[in-house]
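pinging the channel bc i need a second pair of eyes. not urgent but kinda urgent?? the chain im working w is below, pasted from the shared doc
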Amino acid sequence: MASKLLRDAKKYEEAVRRRMKESGATAMLGFKLEGLETGRAVFSMQVKPRHKQLHGVVHGGVLATLADTAAAIAAYTTVPKGTHIATVELKINYLEAVPGGRIRADARVLRTGRNFVVAECEILNEDGSLAAKALLTFGAAGGHSLARERASRE
């Protein structure tokens, strides 16, 4: 049983990596999947000049997008196959500036219900300090699966 769970986890992680490459936004921003388990996803991003706003620190919208992406992938790990999720609420507190380096987004699901998934995400500076914390709610509905092959495109 444990080996089947491990195989399923590896397949899911491969599907996430494949889908991340297909997403123009996440590819352009340079998000990388670092770890994945049920109810948790960890992403990283190497800060580039294109991520920064006028004051030379990472734009808050980039941090919010990173939190949303990580939390959505964590949410997908807790819903039944064939479920589609969409962000319905995102609240983020920016706690300190992100000047550069490799940052991490550590997202965890707090609760999965029939129609909603609630998650949190911490954005950490390269030195490990907490730069931002987000709370997200996703609507969940049947009809889509992250692991589903995109046969209709091929």
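so DSSP finds three helices and six strands in the chain. and The longest helix spans residues 2-22. — does that match what u expected or am i reading it wrong
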